[in-house]
Amino acid sequence: MNRFLLICSMMIAVAFAGTAQAADGKAIASKQCASCHKLKGPAVKTIAEVLKRKAPDLFYAGSKFNAPWLEAYIQSPTTIRPGGTVYINNITLEGDTDVVKNVPKCASKLSAGDAKAVAGYLMTLKDKSMKSGVVKLGKFSKAKAKLLMYKKNACNACHTDPKKGGGISCPTFEGIGARLNPDWMYSFIKDPKHWDPKVWMAKDDLDDTSIQLIVNYLAKQK
Amino acid sequence: MYVKNISKKLVIGLLFGAVLLVGTSAIAEAQEKAVDNYKLMCVQCHGLAGTGKGINAPALAVQPRNHTSAKDMSTLSDDNVFKAIKEGGIAVGKSNQMPAFGALMSDAEVKDLVKHLRGMCKCKGPA
C-alpha cells in the first residue's frame, strides 16, 4: 500500500513538474518572443498583414520543428532566411539590382534552462489537423531526389542548397533536416496555403512518392 | 396560423444563412491588388523595378523576364502571360524556374496581374 502511495505521489510530482515547466515556458515566450512571433493562430489572410510580419509564426511550432533543434536555436539563433522573414521588407534597389539589406536578427539569447522551458512550451503548440507518421524515412535515391527538386521543380530558384547554392527569398535548406519535422515538411509542400494563406511558395502538383522523396532528401540535410 | 409562423421563421432563417454564407465566401475570396501580388510573388525574381534583377536572379540559369521591356513583352499575348503566371513557365515552353502561381492567386487576380504588367511595359500583346 505504502509503495503504491509513493508511486502515485511521484507520478503526480512529475506531472506537476511538467506543467510548471510548460507554464514557465509560456510566460518567458510571452515576454521574450511574442513581440515578433505570433504565438496564437489563425494565420493572417491578407498581404497587408503579411508585410507587417516581423518573424515566423510559432503558433504551430510543435508541428513544425524538431524539439532538440528548437531548444538549441533559441539559445543562439542563426540566419535561416537570408532575405529575412518577409524578403520584400528587406530589399532595396541599388542601381538596377535588388540587394538584401539590414535583415533583422532574432535577438533571443535564452539560458539553457529558459530555452528548455520555452521549447517545451512551443512544442505544445500544434496543428491538430496535421497527420503524423506520414513520411517514411529510409533508403532513397539522392540522384532522383536532386533531379526532381532541382531539374524538374527548381526548388533552388528560391531556396539555397548548401552545396548547390540557390535563391534567397525563402528559408535555406542548410540544416533543414535537423530543424523541421518531416511530417510538417510533407504537409507544407503538399499545401503551403494551409499553413500560410499568403505564402509566396508556389504549390507544385506533386504526388505522394515525389513528396516522400523530397522530404527524405531534406531530412538528410543536417 | 402556427404553420404560417414556422414558415416565416424558416424563410428568415434561410435568408440570414444565405447572407452569412455570401459574406463568408466574400471574405475568403477577398481579392488582393495586383501591385501587392506583384510585390509578394514576383519581385523575388523579377525585382523591385521589374527588370528581372531580383534577389533570386543570380541563382537562376535563365534571367527572369524584364517586365518593363515593351520590346519583349509585346511579343507575348495576354493569354500567354496569364498561362505563364497560373501554370508556370513550362506551360508556355519557358523556364521551369518560373513557378505556377495558380494555387496562390485566383483567376481574377492573375488577370489583374496581367493588366498590371501591361502597365509596366506600357505595351500591348500582339493583335
Give an overview of the whole structure.
Chain A is built from ten helices and four strands; from the N terminus they run H-H-H-H-E-E-H-H-E-E-H-H-H-H. Chain A has helices at 2-32, 47-50, 61-64, 67-73, 112-122, 142-152, 176-179, 182-190, 192-195, 208-219; strands spanning 91-94, 97-100, 160-161, 165-166. Chain A is mainly α and 222 residues long. In chain A, helix 1 (2-32) packs across helix 5 (112-122) and helix 6 crosses helix 10. In chain A, the strands form two sheets. Chain A has a two-stranded antiparallel sheet with strand order 1-2. A two-stranded antiparallel sheet of chain A has the order 3-4. With 127 residues, chain B is an all-alpha fold. In chain B, helix 2 (34-46) crosses helix 5 (107-121) and helix 4 (78-87) packs across helix 5 (107-121). The longest helix of chain B is centred in the first third of the chain and has 27 residues, at 2-28. Chain B is globular and about 65 Å long. At the A-B interface, helix 2, strand 1, strand 2 and strand 4 of A face helix 2 of B.
What tags apply to this protein structure?
heterodimer, A: 4 strands, 5% strand, B: mainly alpha, 5 helices, 54% helix, globular
